[in-house]
Amino acid sequence: MIIIGGRAIGPGHPPFVVAELSGNHNGSLERALAIVDAVAEAGAHALKLQTYTPDTLTVDCDGPGFRLGDEHELWGGETLYRLFQRAHTPWEWHEPIFERARERGLVAFSAPFDPTAVELLEKLGVPAYKIASSEIVDLPLIRLAAATGKPVIISTGMATISEIEAAVSAAREAGCTQLAVLSCTASYPADPSESNLRSLPLLAALTGEVVGLSDHTPGLGAALASVALGACLIEKHVTLSRADGGVDAAFSLEPAELAALVVESERAWRSLGNVAIGPRPSEQEGLRFRRSLYVVREVKAGDPVTPGNVRSIRPSGGLSPDAAGEVMGRRFAKDVPFGTPLTWDLI
Prior knowledge:
Elements: E1 2-4, E2 7-9, E3 16-20, H1 29-41, E4 46-51, H2 54-57, H3 80-87, H4 91-103, E5 107-112, H5 115-123, E6 129-131, H6 139-146, E7 152-155, H7 161-173, E8 179-184, H8 200-207, E9 210-215, H9 221-228, E10 233-237, H10 255-272, H11 284-287, E11 292-295, E12 310-313, H12 324-327, E13 340-341
Parallel strand pairs: 3-4, 3-10, 4-5, 6-7, 7-8, 8-9, 9-10
Antiparallel strand pairs: 1-2, 11-12, 11-13
Helix pairs in contact: 1-4, 6-7, 9-10
């Protein structure tokens, strides 16, 4: 279990739902604050930003290595610099966004992408750090975030087992004692068939840490399925409306969908229950209304048992329906009124 902003995250607690703002502010602080309000009203537990500038991530170069492939579904042919220019959250916005989030009862934190981002976030008092999938190989950054003593959440998109092990070890060695590891498919949008959620128990076993899902697939299906496989934290991008467009809109949830995720993920978690087969406490009343053999017509001593006077009906209390073959043709030992459960002493 880990604790972020006073909230416990782990197998014994409902899923912790994190709404990722990312670039869905579309360049407007007013819109960013409206998203914060929508996230709070939807009942999510946390709001997350990404803290970088185009210049802290890359350089303004148009060479082939700095350009996304033309076949990319959303950002084909765009340079990294221009994409990050559109998507980044200006650093001066962080404080008002965090302040609004806290006012609305949300845990607010961010993913830093370089040491200057960690420095800013420390000044703003974030309660945790997220390491993005692409940064899992940046071990110095992981060590820097971990050295703050705050919980660290690491996404594992694109990562091999050895890269995950190296990142987890770097965090632990730098002093992190509260760590979560997220399964992730780092494609945008992601195909559900590539989620490989059956790997979540393996990820938990390999790392020994709390696990969750950073999900870029459309809809709620993958996120809800992950709960059954042990996800304790679910992160989804959120926008006010996909129709408004924006760099992340295509794989982001709208507020009503986020609200459904919060409700249904907790319901999915509760449905896991315990390893138990047999009647549940709430089924005790139902047990009274199983079928059994009843006398359905008033009979006299000596009358034969026939399908006309003994039938399998609800409620329980009489002999099992399977006993019908044994009792038919026998005779009643006494007068029996209508509506009496058939027992062996009556025949």
